[in-house]
Design brief:
Layout: E1 7-15, E2 20-28, H1 29-40, H2 51-56, H3 58-69, E3 72-75, E4 81-82, E5 85-92, E6 95-103, E7 112-115, E8 126-133, E9 136-143, E10 149-150, E11 155-156
Parallel strand pairs: 1-8
Antiparallel strand pairs: 1-2, 2-6, 3-4, 3-7, 5-6, 7-10, 8-9, 9-11
């Protein structure tokens, strides 16, 4: 499938009871296939495979996680790198949901994120991140020229 826009949409959710943060990134399957094939230097077909088959392919999971490690980076409020662990994926039709997890004591506010997914491929790539905390939501928008951005105070009641 070819599409006219290049965008990923992410949800970054913090659980204050556990300190656990989950990031879910929704991408087009063809963009992900293109990116991991380029990054790994060998084909990793996604299209035409069902979600169950993809879910069991550990080589594919490893290739995606290695690609993400250089493209989605998180830092604490103090500027220290926070490792994002692979949480798996779901695939349906032409969309893929990628799951990353970490612990972020103190919450999302003040943390720094760099989201460069697919920016090396598409000059018009846009990555949208919605952060959800108990106090509300906040958002970040990344294009190919952006570096780290800081999560600001959430909008109350949103």
């Amino acid at each position: 499938m070819t599409h006219k826009f290049h965008v990923s949409v992410s949800q970054f959710e913090f659980d204050p009871r556990t300190g656990k943060t989950t990031m879910v990134i929704r991408v087009f399957a063809d963009d992900l296939e293109n990116a991991i094939t380029r990054h790994a230097g060998r084909p990793f077909p996604l299209l035409g495979r069902d979600g169950g088959e993809i879910g069991k392919d550990q080589a594919l999971h490893g290739a995606i996680y290695r690609y993400l490690q250089g493209r989605v980076e998180l830092r604490s409020r103090q500027g220290r790198p926070v490792p994002l662990r692979w949480g798996g994926l779901e695939a349906r039709s032409d969309l893929v949901w990628l799951y990353l997890e970490t612990r972020l004591p103190g919450g999302i506010r003040g943390a720094q994120l760099r989201h460069r997914l697919f920016c090396e491929i598409f000059e018009d790539q846009v990555n949208i991140v919605n952060a959800i905390e108990s106090e509300g939501t906040s958002g970040l928008l990344f294009d190919v020229d952006d570096d780290f951005k800081v999560f600001q105070r959430p909008r109350a009641g949103s």
